[in-house]
Prior knowledge:
By secondary structure, chain A is α/β, with parallel strands linked by helices. Chain A contains 22 helices and 26 strands.
Amino acid sequence: MKSDIEISRDADLMHITELANNLGLKQEHCEPYGHYKAKVSLDSIEDLKDRPDGRMVLVTATTPTPFGEGKTVNTIAITMGLNTIGKNAISCIRQPSMGPVFGIKGGAAGGGYAQVVPMEDFNLHLTGDIHAISSAHNLGSAALDTRIFHEEREGYEAFEKRTGLKALRIDPKRITWRRVVDHNDRALRHITVGEQTPGTPKNMNGVPRTEGFDITVGSELMAILALATSLKDMRERFGKVIMAYNHDGEPVTAEDLQVAGSMAVIMKEALKPTLMQNLEGGASFVHAGPFANIAHGNSSIVADKIALKLGDYVVTEAGFGSDMGYEKYCNIKVRAGGKSPDVVAIVCSLRGLKSHSGDFQVVAGRDLDPGMIDPNLPALEKGVANLHFHINNVKKYGVPAVVTINRFPQDTQEELDWLMAKAKELGAEGVAISEGFIHGGEGCMNVAKEIDRVCNEKKAYFNYLYNVEDDISTKLNELATKGYGGNKVVISELAQKQIADLEAKGYGNLPVCMAKTQLSVSHDPALKGEPTDFDVPVREVRLSAGAGFVYALCGTIMTMPGLGSKPGYMKIDLDDDGNIMNLS
Amino acid sequence: MKSDIEISRDADLMHITELANNLGLKQEHCEPYGHYKAKVSLDSIEDLKDRPDGRMVLVTATTPTPFGEGKTVNTIAITMGLNTIGKNAISCIRQPSMGPVFGIKGGAAGGGYAQVVPMEDFNLHLTGDIHAISSAHNLGSAALDTRIFHEEREGYEAFEKRTGLKALRIDPKRITWRRVVDHNDRALRHITVGEQTPGTPKNMNGVPRTEGFDITVGSELMAILALATSLKDMRERFGKVIMAYNHDGEPVTAEDLQVAGSMAVIMKEALKPTLMQNLEGGASFVHAGPFANIAHGNSSIVADKIALKLGDYVVTEAGFGSDMGYEKYCNIKVRAGGKSPDVVAIVCSLRGLKSHSGDFQVVAGRDLDPGMIDPNLPALEKGVANLHFHINNVKKYGVPAVVTINRFPQDTQEELDWLMAKAKELGAEGVAISEGFIHGGEGCMNVAKEIDRVCNEKKAYFNYLYNVEDDISTKLNELATKGYGGNKVVISELAQKQIADLEAKGYGNLPVCMAKTQLSVSHDPALKGEPTDFDVPVREVRLSAGAGFVYALCGTIMTMPGLGSKPGYMKIDLDDDGNIMNLS
């Protein structure tokens, strides 16, 4: 089989303006970026407002191995499959960070015959949104350090007198706004800025302080991009972003620094979703890509809004397993204005479920244990508990579940048949096998038919998991128990203090975003399958005031990845004709 | 008069594909980025190869005040003026950094009725080239620190054994590749990276070392972008970039780190120049913007190449006065493959020349002394020596000079007449007054006619200032004497050692790029007018092996600006309709 980039390059692509035209978008609302990408103006929403909304298909997965279960592939394949059976379906997916692209992971545009194309454009720059986030975010940082520099050098009173500005009296030890860069760069995790340049006077470079860089997609601005419902909403949220605290412990926002407007100016174009196409000519919006732990892990509300007006079905992917991206979709994104799902596809694989038997060690970068690839019904029977959790979890929100089995070449029909029957027994409203990777839409027709059948037969009665008006501890406990099946939440002393402080400042009625491992339903990556009898420890609670949620840390979340000793970039190059080699 | 952004917004713009079509570009070679910008493929050069090249008009200026003499305005106005008199003229200008846009300077797209539009697009992101440079550059940095991390942690031998890679044995104290960000951010000038994150094991974040960020446009990759003649050439130059030295003092290149290919992949699209339009519908290529001190200060060779095939005249702007950007155009850019100028326009103003009398202190951010604005022939008579220098300097390279007087509202006809006559007397082949700022092309017709007349009457016989095969000290001395009119170059002991080392390593026959102040013809900003009897001290000599020049530091060159206490970003915002306010 050809490599992903070869398949992408050999594809016969439609000009993006033609695709936009076919969808019913006006030319003035479609700004091409090259021949195969276009930004779509938010004015199109107003223009299309009389059309009915399509159905929302959310694609989630069982608890993933480090290899992934093929969720993006199947998001695209399901879209293609729905188009193959005569529906009008559109994908809404996230834009990947360039860090992992050059690190280890390679492309994130799907794979095989279920890709968004051109995959190089998808994986590199796209239409510049992540660059815009880096720029807007780091302008905020420059504004912060500049203000500290001027106020501290002059003294607060003299500063106020000279400039006519109110001194913000920022505490350099309580800065919450780290800088960002869209690379895997561990040397920037912990740094000291504002040091004296040798040979220059002291204090010329500001006030020395510890600092660090996160990868750009971890920026709160990314979460805001995904949750904003309009340019005005995005601008207002930027103003609320807390960058530091002053010497009295009061928050200092981007509005206080008078930089929120410029940050919004830098991100004005970034709020327009990017339209691309899949290998079969179907439409795909690519927009935003927040973390699924410290943020909510879903693509943008504005992309969904436009797509829902243009398609019968919108197929969107949520990060990690259903305890992560799907939970956050329901409890955070829907509350911010997203459409609740009409049906959920749970992607799983024989090998993935076998890993949940607990019999195997799965390590990124090493080959899979043959016991997970070869027929092994006992392991499958043990591991299927994880699927049970996710089917139940999806249905908790009143949404029907269709289990989508991502078939791999060595999978036997016997085990597949067993899993199909078992999925039904565990409560799935539908189940089918996907061969989208090798056969595209045709390989995913059966899944598409199941999704369409379930949608027609079973209406979703969506409900949230918790009452957002409850206090923060109660909401955390609801997630720990109803959300993950644990006994209770255990909140550290530090977190209790932080919660009291947040509630006193009026942030108590925000949704909570649990920053926990994706490798287990629980907080502990070692607990496979469907763990029971565990407590969920919350170490720390933080605030994303602009994005509009409180997030709770259940462990250490890496916000700046590192690079291995043989990173992906070593092989990526241009060939003699200027084509990109070895991107996937 | 309306503000720049109002004029830009009220303009009736042509769709960029229509403009490209009118120019004779094939649709497949023109990739629109929105409705008013397009990237032009380098394949168009091959396609147009049978067309003759147009004439190259280089726009330079007298030694600038901190306010600038209106060089960009007149580059665009001359283009418009040439079009007004029936020629087919195209501008090739530099892309501005976003740092100064949000710092103090505002937009850089020209001004008044001589602008490239839409000015917001010009000043923000454009088509993402500078973002691509930041990304490619910082991937190089991540590769460098990653390699040090892995080699030092494991030990060279164990590293080689495990990975099969040759240990590079990089000296963390001899790293020449600083990181970059496209903001004015003084806190990043001098930092320590790779520090331990509290609560994590030691050495998890690499080897702590001092580091710093430059503003992105100061990256060697920017100089390469401007000098590369093809994608292949850019890729090869990236490979030669020196990022550090090993413990034996041998250079470690991007090729050694196996990251040059990925850097080129990230910048593949950036090598395509961006086509925009001016307020009168003329074409303007915007591409690259290297510093004019540590680099050569001119827009790209590839943009020129395309424009020369499409226009009778290409009008391009070189950074700062003729001792800076023009000198480097001639001695560096032409040697790399740029077309030598057919005529040079020297932009000057009454106020600018009066400042060279030495009678006034000009400080950025403060109002000009009325003695420079009001009639003041004695000051003008003293200051005109600076124009004398620049006319002579231009002609030294065998190129005719047309003095372009940028008229300001209070300028008297008497002083203008005096200057016109004087310019001729000083050897200018042509002279005319420009009112491009308030009248666009019509206001610059007289300059356009002079340029056209001089081009028809006087062929340029271009010659370089120095022989590139001479040794580095000789070349530096040629610049100090023939280039600036000084007595001789004085090379510090440190620089002498560096020169010996560079020559021993085979870099002796590269052109030299003088990194000196732009505020004087000499190395000393206090020496106004046409200074004589001075030595040019060279403090340090460095190498840009990828860009292909040696650069000599005559003073401290700021590679990371700071922000004032009331930066431009404080006023820039979105209005209720989503329009950008206060950008200029």
